[in-house]
Amino acid sequence: MKLSIAKLPGDGIGPEVVTQAVKAIDAVCRRFGHEVEYKPAYIGACAIDKFGSPFPEETLKICLSSDAVLFGAVGDPKYDNDPSAKVRPEQGLLAMRRELGLYANIRPVETFQSLLDRSPLRPEIAAGADFVCVRELTGGMYFGDKGRLDGGDTAYDTNIYHRYEVERILRKAYSLAMIRRRHLTVVDKANVLESSRLWRQVAKEMAREYPEVETDFMYVDNAAMKLITGPRFFDVLVTENTFGDILTDEASCISGSMGLLASASLGDHTGVYEPIHGSYPQAAGRNIANPLAAILSAAMMFEYAFGLKEEGAAIRKAVAGSIERGFVTEDLALAPARPLGTSEVGDKVAELIENNV
Ligand code: IPM
Ligand code: MN
User: Fold this and answer.
1) How many Å apart are CA 33 and CA 118, to the nearest integer?
2) CA of 170 to the centre of ligand 2 (A)
3) 144, 233, 239, 353: which could form a disulfide with 187 (CB 3.0–4.6 Å)?
4) Ligand nearest to the CA of 75
5) Distance CA 96, CA 318 (A)
6) Distance between the two ends of the chain, CA-based, in angstroms?
7) Is 249 a catalytic residue?
8) Smallest CA separation from ligand 1 atom 8, residue
9) Cα distance between residue 79 and residue 83, in whole Å
10) Per the residue annotation, which of 79, 142, 161, 273 is the catalytic one?
11) Any catalytic annotation for residue 268?
């Protein structure tokens, strides 16, 4: 197969981890006989520096003309403490989500037996957790009407949802539940929020179309607790944009390192595959960032964008093999084992893929 991938490394550790994902993709392509073409493009702070825009027109064009987007991270500390900054790197990410219609963010959480003592949860609580968060990504407060009143002393962000937005994300969540353990948890705040009551109403209607799936409803505060007291409860968790942002960061700790969590953002056009961690500027250029989340995002790319399940599985197997053998970065290495650098972990994973071990 001929694969065309837009490569958007972005800022901070983005370029380093994307380079390792590329090694894994190349290894898979060599082993399975695919041809791959990368189209590099700018997003985030580096795009502001070069083009004055965090998501330049050229980048959008490249994304739209590719089969998948491999994305690193955006963000730069020089913008963080400047409330007057007119353009911010994060706007590039939001613009990409909007322009590509990426309404469904899929964030799987799984645990690795050999890393259980890295989890902030007790091993018997974290063990066996295996669920997928489906976060709505183009609606709610992130994109609703926002502004200032009273000369700036009053501020508002509108949490607005239309029925079609709720329907399409629930549809995605149900289809995922159908190919997993058939348990869907709809997370909301329906005891307080009108938008949540719409979500619940639509979910109850749709549940009738999926009698095989056990649907339950949970308030977001309760879900935040359940994620750390009994994460095995969840199979597929679906929720709106802001709740999903918060809960997926929380969920990302369960496995022991945020550096393990991959994601896919899917929608109307090309899908985007990215690690859920940010640009981690303190680690940029130091060859210490964990590349496994980016590499696992490449596995999701093979599965979702290209429908190449075996290739995705080959990447997953190599990542698991790399963890088992202790080929990991410092966030995961336990003394006396010596951690490897970002680039060395990338080499090991590529080697394991190519040799099918
Ligand atoms: C994420 C990030 C983004 C978000 C930021 C960088 C805008 O935290 O992808 O979860 O809030 O969605
Ligand atoms: Mn987030």
Assistant:
1) 37
2) 20
3) 239
4) 1
5) 30
6) 23
7) yes
8) 245
9) 8
10) 142
11) no
Q: Quick check: 25 and 19 in contact, CB under 8 A? A: no
The answer to whether the beta carbons of residues 243 and 261 sit under 8 Å apart is no
Which residue in 86, 71, 98 sits closest to 278, CA to CA? 71
User: Given the DSSP bridges, would you call strands 183-188 and 214-219 parallel, antiparallel or unpaired?
Assistant: parallel
Sign of CA dihedral 263, 64, 174, 196: positive
**Ligand 1 in reach of 73 Cβ (< 6 A):** no
The SS3 of residue 222 is helix
- For residue 245, the ligand 1 atom closest to its alpha carbon is 10
Catalytic residue list contains 49: no
Distance CA 299, CA 288 (A): 22
pLDDT in tens, 89-121: 999 999 999 999 999 999 999 999 889 999 999
Predicted TM-score (pTM) of this structure = 0.94
Query: Identity (one letter) of the amino acid at 322?
Result: S
Using one digit for the tens of pLDDT, what is the confidence trace for 248-306? 999 999 998 889 999 999 998 999 999 999 999 999 999 999 999 999 999 999 999 99
Cβ atoms of 25 and 7 closer than 8 Å: no
Regarding the beta carbon of 245 and ligand 1, being less than 6 Å apart is answered: yes
Q: Which residues of 270-309 are buried (b: 16+ CB within 10 A; e: fewer)?
A: bbbbbbbbbbbbebbeebbbbbbbbbbbbbbbbbbbbebe
Report whether residue 90 contacts ligand 1, using a CB cutoff of 6 Å.
yes
220 in Cβ contact with 247 (< 8 Å): yes
**What's the 245 CA to ligand 1 centre distance in angstroms?**
7
Question: CB within 8 A of 99, min separation 6: which ones?
Answer: 55, 60, 63
The alpha carbon of residue 97 and the mean position of all alpha carbons in its chain are separated, in whole angstroms, by 12
**Nearest ligand to the C-alpha of residue 90?**
1
- Expressed in angstroms and rounded, the spacing between residue 238 Cα and the centre of ligand 2 is 15
Low-confidence residues of the chain: pLDDT under 70: none
Please name which of 282, 173, 293, 192 lies closest in space to residue 234, comparing C-alpha atoms: 173
